[in-house]
Write a structure and sequence with these properties.
With about 725 residues, this protein is an alpha+beta fold.
């Protein structure tokens, strides 16, 4: 039953031997209404050995066929409450099975509360009183039920069924012309008894609950305290009262806005309303729960006293506003504190986790497009924190890391950590600081994952939890601000419960990102831009042909230098510094210096170095920080499987495609056909190498990398002549 308390537990608090016949029947009716079997009622009834008869429960059970005002679990709950049952409450809107503890929702301070005087109207305008009541509660086209005729029983005047065939508009029109004689419109009433009116509209056929067309209002009435105290409590509780009517007797009738969508919701809201009232000392008449209930009509005389409107439109403006306010009364939020009290004793700031970027216990988002290597950069960060070393340009605190892997299979993830450690050239001295939670194929929405994560991570002293990627666990529509706010709140829970930072990655929205601010590039709601304490955004730089040639040249020179260092000492004396920076000169030198077998081996290394250089992509990290000053953009090369900072500065003036100056774009268009053919052939080869970071290179991968259609990729591969396509996979011809 989810969060509900089972009725079989609740009835344990009710002794059947202490119940009257009707109470015993009510328990059975309530159990049947809520879907329990007759055996539950029978087993409970057996506890009253003096009155129990075998088969009686089953016989009576068959006679319970339901009606317009069914006995529900709420009746059983109330019986248990009256006998001392005190269930727990979880912060939700109360249903039949929820109850408030003694201290919950204590709005009224009884010791300080002052009586609120109720004054009769100075000028008596019976028709005006009723017209105002009708105008506030009803639409002109809605039918109104009212009673003026009574009958007497045991010295009491009781209302008849009354009338329900006229609309509020018709009544208002006739009342406005009747002067003080409202009896000429409604029928004469007994001035000893007064008159009644139903506060919810009817269908014009009858006045039962099933004839109510809109469940707008509920009645709060109490006659166990002074009128002035009732008035004070109703106002102190900020009840969303549409009309407050003096009954002409011992009570006020508060017509409260509940705006329920159906009868079930109406009963739930009325139960909630009544319990809040009772917890604040206003003992409510429980017989007034029905939506078709009669209330005292303003504008009439009752036994020498006026039934009149005390006030209208008081308290909160709607049920939702009132409910939200009540829920906030007894929350677990801290009280506001005076700055003066802490000015000379400020609390210490959380220590930095990533120097000048993120503090421990805070949240960070890493955003970027496909193929940016976001998972690799998070693995690099995991290693940096575990080992307590620099990540890119920032020093990191050392501590335990939980890496939540939602995308890769277990083997691939573990191999990536191994490969990144090796590529970073780091000795794995603190592998015990990294825990990996592999959840591919087992991910659940974040609101379900958070408590599971907290439970597993408790007492393990993690200083950071890294979640990669979040699209696997997003709860709701990522473009919905309220749903994403709730989603991001789950990260706050993890931070608070574990006293750890949370770092997560998300993808860019579709389209060109170069012209956008870094804070606006992440896909979905703007909540992603406002929620984290730090945002690091990756955007790809458009490497020019000249820069690509330079990188290839440097890669070839480095390959030659490395090979020569392995084979010879002091070979640098034979060649100038300028020649050492030229791939042509270095190849010429190596061809002369090396034996043929050696040079053939070197050529293989050169080809590999060229491929790596062509596959290398350039990126820029821009930051939006809450706790630290803004940093200058950091330029990187993604040299699979790691990112390396551009220490030389060759990427400083390179910009994303969308940010090129107009003259640069125009210059790029003035190319000969031969240039264009060479360019797209080169782009095919570059895309193939770049996508080679995956196990298989597909047409789809290359199309995404090149930002063209799959058909274009297929045509260019065919024209190139050096590739083969097999079932969507691309490979080089052998």
């Amino acid at each position: 039953m989810g969060h509900r308390t089972d009725l079989t537990e609740i009835i344990e608090y009710i002794d059947p031997s202490g119940c009257g016949y009707q109470e015993w029947v009510n328990v059975g009716m309530g159990l049947k209404h809520e879907g329990y079997p007759v055996s539950v009622w029978d087993e409970w009834s057996r506890r009253d050995a003096g009155r129990y008869h075998a088969g009686e429960c089953e016989k009576k059970w068959r006679s319970f066929r339901g009606n317009s005002s069914p006995v529900t679990a709420g009746t059983i709950v109330q019986m248990a409450l009256d006998r001392g049952w005190k269930p727990s409450y979880g912060g939700r809107e109360l249903d039949w099975d929820d109850e408030l503890s003694a201290e919950d929702y204590a709005v009224v301070d009884k010791k300080r509360m002052e009586k609120k005087e109720v004054n009769e109207p100075e000028e008596w305008d019976p028709a005006g009183q009723l017209i105002k009541y009708l105008e506030i509660l009803f639409e002109a086209s809605e039918r109104v039920g009212y009673v003026t005729r009574t009958y007497e029983r045991d010295g009491r005047f009781l209302p008849s069924k009354g009338c329900w065939d006229r609309t509020a508009g018709q009544l208002i029109q006739q009342l406005s012309k009747c002067g003080d004689d409202i009896g000429s419109v409604l029928g004469d009433y007994n001035p000893k008894a007064g008159a009644w009116i139903r506060f919810n509209p009817l269908d014009g056929k009858d006045c039962k609950n099933e004839n109510v067309t809109e469940f707008k209002y509920a009645l709060v009435e109490s006659d166990t305290m002074e009128i002035e105290k009732q008035n004070a409590v109703i106002r102190e509780l900020e009840l969303p009262v549409a009309c407050l009517v003096h009954s002409g007797g011992k009570s006020l009738h508060a017509v409260v806005r509940v705006d329920a969508s159906d009868y079930k919701e109406y009963r739930n809201r009325v139960d909630y309303l009544y319990r809040v009232c009772e917890k604040n000392g206003l003992k409510v008449d429980g017989q007034n729960r029905n939506p078709s209930r009669l209330s005292r009509m303003p504008g009439v005389i009752r036994n020498g006293k006026k039934q009149f409107l005390v006030d209208t439109d008081i308290g909160k403006q709607s049920w939702e506003e009132w409910h939200e306010w009540i829920e906030s009364i007894n929350d677990d939020l801290p009280e506001p504190e005076r700055l003066e009290d802490v000015w000379d004793d400020l609390p210490g700031l959380s220590a930095p986790l990533i120097n000048d970027v993120l503090r421990q216990g805070h949240k960070m988002l890493i955003s970027g497009p496909s193929k940016a290597g976001k998972s690799f950069i998070l693995i690099e960060l995991s290693i940096a924190i575990a080992e307590g070393i620099k990540w890119l340009i920032w020093e990191c605190a050392r501590g335990r890391v939980l890496y939540v892997n939602l995308e890769l299979d277990r083997a691939s993830c573990l191999h990536r950590f191994h490969d990144v450690y090796k590529a970073m050239g780091i000795q794995p001295k603190h592998l015990d600081n990294i825990d990996i939670w592999n959840l591919r194929g087992k991910a659940v929405p974040m609101d379900k994952l958070a408590p599971k994560l907290i439970r597993r991570a408790a007492k393990k002293d993690y200083i950071v939890v890294i979640i990669d990627p979040i699209y696997k666990v997003i709860t709701g529509d990522e473009n919905s601000a309220d749903q994403m706010a709730n989603f991001c709140n789950q990260f706050d829970k993890v931070c608070t419960e574990l006293n750890a930072a949370v770092i997560y990655c998300h993808h860019h929205s579709k389209g060109s990102q170069g012209s956008k601010r870094a804070i606006d590039r992440a896909s979905g709601s703007g909540v992603f831009a406002r929620d984290p304490d730090a945002i690091l955004d990756l955007i790809e730089l458009d490497v020019t042909e000249d820069l690509l040639k330079q990188q290839i040249n440097n890669a070839v020179c480095d390959a030659c230098t490395g090979y020569l260092n392995e084979q010879y000492d002091n070979w640098e004396d034979d060649i100038s510094q300028d020649d050492m920076c030229s791939q042509v000169r270095m190849k010429e030198y190596c061809r002369k210096k090396l034996f043929k077998k050696q040079y053939d081996e070197l050529e293989g290394q050169i080809r590999q170095a060229e491929r790596r250089a062509r596959a290398r992509t350039a990126w820029r990290i821009e930051g939006t920080l809450r706790e630290f000053p803004k940093f200058e953009p950091v330029n990187l090369w993604f040299d699979y499987p790691v990112h390396r900072t551009d220490s030389i500065g060759v990427l400083k003036d390179i910009q994303p495609e969308a940010e090129k100056a107009p003259w640069q774009k125009a210059a790029g268009k003035r190319k000969t056909p031969a240039d264009k053919k060479k360019e797209w052939k080169q782009s095919i080869e570059t895309a193939y190498e770049a996508c080679g970071i995956n196990e298989k290179v597909t047409v789809e991968d290359m199309a995404e990398y090149m930002a063209v259609t799959e058909k274009t990729v297929r045509n260019r591969l065919k024209e190139h002549g050096g590739f083969v396509i097999e079932e969507g996979n691309v490979r080089k011809k052998t």
